[in-house]
UniProtKB/TrEMBL annotation:
Organism the protein comes from: Suricata suricatta
Protein name from the UniProt record: Immunoglobulin superfamily member 1
Biased segments, Polar residues type: 1219-1233
UniProt biased composition (Basic and acidic residues): 1195-1204
Protein's UniProt keywords contain Coiled coil: no
One protein family per Pfam: Ig_2
Superkingdom as given in the UniProt entry: Eukaryota
Keyword terms of this UniProt record: Disulfide bond, Glycoprotein, Immunoglobulin domain, Membrane, Repeat, Signal, Transmembrane, Transmembrane helix
Chain ranges passing through the membrane: 520-539, 551-570, 1166-1185
Signal peptide start-end: 1-28
UniProt domain Immunoglobulin: residue ranges: 43-123, 137-222, 234-317, 328-411, 426-507, 685-773, 784-869, 880-965, 976-1063, 1072-1150
PANTHER family: IMMUNOGLOBULIN SUPERFAMILY MEMBER 1, MHC CLASS I NK CELL RECEPTOR
Gene3D superfamilies per UniProt: Immunoglobulins
Length: 1240
């Protein structure tokens, strides 16, 4: 019995969708991710009769797309390819007729293929509105009280939406939304909310024109019955193709049971009638997509449901992940010790079993609980019988056909003494002159330390942690017999048995090839030298015998002979360098590219042309070959360095494998990748390739399809559906695996097909096996000089690794171009040097290297981009906001090139590698420096280069210097003869610094580039400016910086403003405290100019001569006899140029008072003056009264004696001190008498 598939139960699915959503969070599940669907709707310009003119609109939900597809009744298709990527497109339908009525959906193109189709739009006969669709959307609130949103899609805008519930004549709710979707909310679901709902629409202006009712939607409230139990038979982990039975059992008889897979509940809803109180869901042939999380529930005849069962996870796999067995602390155990075998299981819920080779039954078991890191198999009190080979396997309690991958094994050794190691010599057991031998002591498990013994010398002993010992043969003392031993960390006091003896021998005479070659060269050069000396002596003897007197002839002969002698000596001196460790790169002619073109996209075989293109600009002609031997044709290279080979209509004679070569003057290239034509109506077979996969890293699989405009599909062996799909993006596609893991291993292939239906497919490519292998870490790869070089330069690549005795391979643009020979490497060598003696324009590209040791390879190194310059015009480099920057500020270097689509690099003098790379879409880019520091000072330049043709680059830009100021004391800047200079005169700037032997720079505000730089021997630099002009006016400053690292620069000097003019600028004139004179007060006029060291003069209207001169610009003006009133102006002259006066300032008017008292007689002054007058008058009256009383007071005083006078004087004094407020005549008299002289 098989399952009823989802489409047969669409009504029941809608019934229980709300139940699933309301329970989702209570089960601990995260939100279910649905594929984004496009939106499809109708627009019309006849609102009262929409069927008269219909346009369908399709909109992608969240991204722009390059093409859209409209589907009708699953058979007819309409394409829209907008001129630019957009969010939505329109499909004009026109008037609705019986011919264009039907079911419509739309899709849009994504990076990984076509999107999910939109919801189905049903267009019926004219005169009817489209039938709305009805679905639910639950909120995140769990039960009880689940909130439900019911959505009704009416396809047209400005419709009235009605929600009806079965059994009620009136609508339950209605809405008039602004769009095409109405949302009806049912809050706090209760049993009263249950029922069957439908949705209808009508046009606002025509209430009688209704649409067909939507499909009914039945809502129920779940959780009225207890939850069931869900179990799997034979087990939850099965292989593809096997059968599986899921049993859902509840406590109540007669219920209907349902099963749901949470990963895709809309397409995996199964219903089953019960057998008593349980139901069985049978999967006859499991597939990979059947794996997931399952749950079940049951419901009665009124659709009242139970709670959900617990989630059951089902695994469907062909292969279990590999298990690993590790021995702790070591696989070598001393008798009587304890140890553990750790087997980390990677599948939860599956037990593990420990096996020993040669025994059928399991030794130990670990249960099916999740395996933790601290759970292991333990072996206590190890004996000799415990030694052997152990492995760890998954333990399943049910039968299945899941393939177990190979398990690693651990060989356990129980010893009273450690076993002997193996000893070998590299590169051989025979010494060569000047070379050493490395002895390698090997065991298969971790070792604490190795020891090397020399039998001929009892006291000789060497120790090593990395198992390698270097033996030299200086003075013939390295030959002899050697052996090694070791001890492990678990038993540091127990040393192993010694290895077998290994004998090292000296060279058999001197018959090594290197020695013979060098000695032969030396001997031949010595013989040549002796022969040339004899020739010189013979010439001199012959000349004397023949009595030849011409001195010039003798000198010429001797000179020619001596030239040969010097040449021989130079060769003799260089003969020792015949064998070098550098590997010269014989750069192969670049491999050409082969592809096909056609003018019949749907049937390419009707007219096919093969094209061959070379990245080398020196290619002369191309050759096309078939089946590696058959000569097809030769074509000369065009200006685009390519050639066409027309094949015409494909026939059986054309079937075969094609490749092409490019010919240069002295060389022929490697063959291109083979293009295989497999049939007269089948696309050429693509080629698939990928770099070695690395665990946890991104991997790109390249599929080359030969024809442009094809679509690409990637397949994996064992998976029926395509793994990835890519649209028409050229002649090749790159499929990406974001993170390579064990599950991604396998055999992959790719196919291509035409872009439009009916699809025409290619043959599958050859399979590509992806296996994650153990690899050495990537090597360190660099160039000894900068990778940005000029043509003819010498470039050396250095590829190194800490591992020893490796073979190195050099790659350019992914192709192997050179390798290092281990026979030339000295013992222990861990580096290889690849040399390009003279770089050409085609030598640029992306270089990398790898190394290997027999079967184990390393990861690829980082890429070095070699750029060959002087092919394109020079770019310009500008610093913004300027080249002089304070520490901590930001600087942008703008590089402007001449062509689009180039890659830019920024270079810093003193750094070998470029600082930054940019690949902009335009012809310029910006390099940013944030919080710049002293180390960023220096000279910068930029270059741009193409990335498709051997990295051919431009000339370097003109260098620009960046100074980071504020690190040294600021200098002083002085202008001679002064800051004001007449046009045509000469002037000099003197910049005085604090440190000698610095570089001084003159700057002008508003100018990017420095005006001038000098490196004087002292503390001062003089910048001479001859014949200055008006544009030389401005604000100047200077800085200085150190000539060596860290290139620290000073602060700016004080700014100095320079005027190039015949007339200095006019000054300003102001008055203090005001421009109005006050009685008895002076006014100070302040004249201010822009320059120091000047003399000011003040002029008064009406006076022929200047009134005053001042050096500080202050003039004091008084208004004696009204002469200070009037208009004033001032001017100045430079002390260095007393004949040059500035223009006068603007006039300033001083005002005086209108009469002596008018200005000062304010209300306050009048009040104060009146009070003074009153007080003076009152005092005069009092004095007059007292004066009249004076004679009587004098008479009475004369009649008293001295004592009375003394008493009276004391009383008078006391009365004066008390100071009463009333003034009686007697008191006035007493006060008056006190002031008189007293007779004694």
């Amino acid at each position: 019995m098989t399952l009823n598939r989802p489409r047969e139960q669409s009504t029941m699915l809608q019934t229980f969708t709300v139940l699933l959503f309301c329970f989702r969070l209570s089960l601990g599940m995260t939100s279910i991710v649905m594929h984004s669907q496009p939106e499809l709707w109708i627009e019309t310009n006849y609102p009262q009769a929409p069927w008269e003119n219909i346009t369908l609109f399709c909109k992608s939900p969240s991204r722009i797309s390059s093409k859209f597809l409209l589907l009708k009744d699953k058979t007819q298709m309409t394409w829209i390819r907008p001129s630019s990527k957009t969010f939505q497109v329109s499909f004009p339908i026109g008037a609705l007729t019986k011919y264009n009525a039907g079911l419509y959906r739309c899709c849009y193109w994504k990076e990984t293929g076509w999107s999910e189709p939109s919801k189905v739009l049903e267009l019926e006969a004219p005169g009817q509105l489209p039938k709305p669709i009805f679905w639910i959307q639950a909120e995140t609130s769990p039960l009880p009280g689940c909130n439900v949103n019911i959505l009704c899609h009416g396809w047209l805008q400005d419709l009235v939406f009605m929600l009806f519930k079965e059994g009620y004549a009136e609508p339950a709710d209605y809405q008039i939304p602004t769009g095409t979707v109405a949302i009806f909310s049912i809050a706090n679901m209760t049993p009263e909310s249950e029922g069957v709902y439908i949705c209808c629409t009508h046009i606002q202006m025509i209430p009688t024109l209704w649409s067909e009712p939507s499909n009914p939607l039945k809502l129920i409230v779940a959780g009225l019955y207890p939850k069931p139990t869900l179990t799997a038979y034979p087990g939850p982990i099965m292989a593809t193709g096997e059968s599986l039975n899921l049993r859902c059992q509840g406590p109540i008889y007669g219920m209907t049971f349902a099963l749901i897979r949470l990963e895709d509940f809309e397409k995996s809803f199964y219903r089953r009638r019960p057998i008593k109180n349980e139901a069985y869901f049978f999967f006859q042939a499991l597939k990979i997509h059947d794996a997931g999380h399952y749950l079940c529930f049951y419901y009665d005849g009124s659709n009242r449901g139970s709670l959900f069962s617990d989630i059951l996870k089902i695994w469907v796999t062909d292969t279990f992940p590999k298990t690993w067995l590790l021995a702790q602390p070591s696989p070598v155990v001393q008798i009587g010790q304890n140890m553990s075998l750790w087997c980390p299981g990677q599948v939860d819920g599956v037990g593990l079993a420990l096996y020993k080779k040669g025994e059928d039954k399991t030794l130990q078991l670990l249960d099916t609980t999740p395996i933790h890191d601290n759970e292991s198999f333990f072996l206590n009190n190890v004996t000799y019988s415990d030694a052997g080979v152990y492995s760890c396997h998954y333990l399943l309690s049910w039968k299945n056909s899941i393939r177990m991958t190979s398990h690693n094994t651990v060989e356990l050794m129980a010893v009273d003494k450690l076993p002997e190691p193996s000893l070998s010599a590299w590169p051989s057991i025979m010494f060569k002159l000047g070379n050493a031998i490395t002895l390698q002591c090997r065991v298969s498990y971790p070792v604490l330390e190795f020891s090397l013994e020399w039998e001929e010398r009892a006291t000789f002993q060497k120790f090593s942690v990395d198992r390698d010992f270097t033996i030299s043969n200086a003075e013939g003392k390295g030959t002899g017999t050697y052996s090694c031993s070791y001890h492990i960390e678990a038993h540091p006091s127990i040393w192993s048995y010694r290895s077998e003896f290994l004998k090292l021998m000296g060279p058999a005479g001197f018959l090594t090839w290197n020695y013979v070659l060098n000695e032969a060269i030396r001997l031949s050069l010595i013989m040549l030298l002796v022969a040339l000396l004899l020739v010189v002596l013979w010439i001199r003897w012959k000349f004397r015998r023949l009595r030849i007197r011409e001195a010039w002839l003798l000198g010429t002969a001797q000179g020619v002979t001596m030239l040969f002698i010097v040449t021989a000596l130079l060769c003799c001196g260089l003969c020792n360098g015949v064998l070098t460790e550098e590997t010269e790169i014989i750069m192969p002619t670049p491999k050409p590219e082969l592809w096909a073109e056609t003018n019949f996209p749907l049937a390419p075989w009707k007219n096919l042309t093969l094209w061959c293109r070379s990245p080398s600009g020196s290619t002369k002609e191309f050759v096309l070959l078939k089946d590696e031997t058959g000569w097809i044709a030769t074509r000369p290279a065009s200006e685009q360095v390519r050639a066409a080979f027309p094949l015409g209509v494909l026939t059986q004679s054309h079937i075969g494998s094609y490749h092409c070569h490019s010919w240069e003057e002295m060389a022929v290239s490697e063959p291109s990748e083979a293009l295989e034509l497999v049939g007269t109506d089948i696309l050429p077979k693509p080629v698939i390739s990928a770099s070695p996969p690395i665990r946890g890293q991104k991997l790109q699989i390249r599929c080359k399809g030969w024809l442009a405009g094809m679509e690409f599909v990637l397949y994996k062996e064992g998976v029926q559906e395509p793994v990835q799909q890519l649209g028409a993006i050229g002649r090749e596609a790159f499929f990406t695996i974001q993170r390579m893991e064990a599950k991604d291993e396998g055999n992959y292939s790719c196919r291509t097909h035409t872009e439009k239906r009916p699809f025409k497919w290619s043959e599958p490519s050859e399979p590509l096996e992806l296996v994650i292998k153990e690899m050495y870490p990537k090597p360190f790869f660099k160039t000894w000089a900068s990778p940005v070089v000029t043509p003819g330069a010498r470039v050396t690549f250095n590829c190194s690794t800490p591992h020893q005795h490796m073979t190195f391979i050099l790659y350019k643009d992914g192709n192997e171009i050179a390798s290092s020979d281990r026979s030339w490497a000295s013992p222990g060598a861990s580096a290889a040097h690849f040399l390009i003696i003279s770089v050409g324009a085609d030598d640029g590209g992306n270089y990398s290297c790898r190394y290997y040791d027999f079967v184990i390879w390393s990861e690829p190194s980082d890429t070095v981009e070699l750029v060959v310059t002087e092919y394109y015009p020079q770019p310009t480099l500008v610093a913004q906001p300027g080249p002089v920057v304070l520490p901590g500020k930001n600087v942008t270097l703008h590089c402007q090139g001449a062509f689009l689509g180039m890659r830019f690099a920024l270079l810093h003098e003193g750094n070998q590698i470029p600082l930054q790379f940019q690949s902009p879409s335009g012809n310029s880019t910006d390099f940013f420096f944030h919080t710049i520091g002293a180390e960023d000072s220096g000279n910068y330049s930029c270059v741009y280069y193409e990335t498709t043709m051997s990295n051919r680059g431009s000339h370097l830009s003109k260098p620009i210097t960046i100074w980071v100021t504020g690190l040294l004391l600021k200098p002083s800047l002085l202008a001679l003869p002064g800051p004001i200079v007449a046009p045509g005169e000469n002037m000099t700037f003197q910049c005085q610094g604090e440190l000698p032997d610095s570089t001084f720079v003159l700057l002008k505000e508003g100018t990017q580039e420095p005006l001038e730089q000098q490196k004087p021997s002292g503390f001062r630099a003089d910048f001479w400016m001859p014949a200055v002009r008006g544009q030389d006016s401005g604000i100047y400053s200077c800085v200085y910086y150190l000539n060596s690292a860290p290139f620290a620069a000073s602060n700016h000097s004080d700014f100095l403003e320079i005027w190039v003019t015949d007339k200095p600028p006019k000054p300003s004139l102001s008055a203090w405290p005001s421009t109005v004179f006050k009685l008895g007060k002076d006014i100070t006029l302040q004249c201010r100019g822009p320059l120091p060291g000047v003399e000011f003069v003040l002029e008064h209207d009406g006076e022929e001569a200047p009134q005053q001169f001042s050096e500080d610009g202050d003039f004091v003006i008084n208004n004696v006899e009204g002469k200070g009133i009037g208009n004033y102006s001032c001017s100045y002259r430079l002390q260095a140029y007393p004949d040059i006066w500035s223009e006068p300032s603007d006039a300033l008017e001083l005002l005086g008072a209108a009469g002596p008292a008018a200005q000062e007689c304010t209300v306050g002054n009048i009040v104060r003056s009146s009070l003074i007058v009153v007080v003076v008058v009152a005092l005069g009256v009092v004095l007059a009264i007292e004066w009249r009383k004076w004679p009587r007071l004098r008479t009475r005083d004369s009649e008293t004696d001295g004592r009375d006078q003394t008493i009276a004087l004391e009383e008078c004094n006391q009365g004066g001190e008390r100071g009463t407020n009333t003034r009686s005549p007697s008191s006035v008299s007493q006060e008056t008498s006190v002031e008189l002289p007293v007779p004694i």
